[in-house]
Amino acid sequence: MEKKKKRKKKRHGRRRITPMQSLLQGLFLGFCICLLVFSLWKLASIFMGYHSGEKEYDDLRQYVLSEPADAENTTAANHTEEDSENEGDATASTSQRMERIDFASLEEINDEAVGWIEIPGTDISYPMVHTSDNTYYLTHTFKRQENKSGSIFIETSNAPNFSDLHTIIYGHNMKDGSMFAGLKNYEKKTYYEAHPSIYIDLADGTHCYQIFSCHEADITDISYTIGYAADDTYASFLDSLTASSLYDTGVSVGTDDSIITLSTCTNKGEKRFVVHAKKVY
After folding, report:
1. Half-sphere exposure of 223 (CA within 13 A, CB side)
2. Which own/partner pairs from 239-248 qualify as long-range (CB within 8 Å, at least 24 positions apart)?
3. Cα–Cα distance measured from residue 46 to residue 176, given in angstroms and rounded to the nearest whole number
4. CA angle 162-267-168, nearest 5°?
5. What is the reported pLDDT for 180?
6. Active site residues
7. Cβ atoms of 207 and 116 closer than 8 Å
8. pLDDT value at position 155?
9. Which pLDDT tens digit goes with each residue over 51-77?
10. pLDDT > 70: what percent of the chain?
11. Which are the contacts of 32, defined by CB distance < 8 A and separation ≥ 6?
């Protein structure tokens, strides 16, 4: 009797898969395969987008004809009236600097080109553009190709020749480290100490900027205000930027200085990381 009961239990323990269950399992498996294929396609698309964007900018770097001069050896003092006795040498130096970027060729490719930005020793070396809105170049490269890498562009309300006391420059924080992704490295003072200068090449030549503040900011932060005159309001603005810095750079800034702000999104996208620098020459 006990053997019969055991056999009966075994018979009852086996579950038969119905046609409906088999169909559902097949549909679920098919869904998983489709999801995997879609994910792989999406990743491939992102990778190809990164690759095509950076390849374009790699090609454009042929128009950078030389490395920027060392800021420690080429200071603003070299271009003042105090060095009038070396006026000939200063003129030659200025002429040499103007040939660092083939600006005419950049303009032929994109008539909205304003120049080039470079931070020596980093991956930041890109052409800059300026247009009538702040959205187009979020999704278009310098050659006007649709791409998530976008471009490095100037705030539309700023003068394209950097004549404003405060000029804002935007760039994406790309996951592959391109565009302005490297700005987040300025969270560490040691990185700043290794890369303290930013070079801006315009139609009139190379200009050097010295970093004085680095920090996170909300999109409504005072860092995004422009249109200043050299007065007490501007002085208060500069004091606010200096006080917000993650560390003391030791670089002083005053109302006689014009500055730039480099801005990019943080990884979470809720805030921005900004780097402020004053013009040295």
Report:
1. 28
2. 241/212, 241/213, 241/276, 242/212, 242/213, 244/213, 244/215, 244/217, 245/212, 245/213, 245/214, 245/215, 246/186, 246/187, 246/189, 246/214, 246/215, 247/189, 247/192, 247/214
3. 10
4. 10
5. 97
6. 172, 265
7. no
8. 98
9. 567 789 999 999 998 888 765 554 444
10. 72
11. none
Q: Which tokens belong to 109?
A: 């490719």
Average pLDDT in the chain = 83
**269 band by pLDDT with thresholds 50, 70 and 90:** confident
Look-up: residue for tokens 């080429």? Answer: 74
Tokens 């592959």 correspond to: 176
Task: Pull the structure tokens for residue 240.
Answer: 């606010």
d(CA 240, CA 225): 12
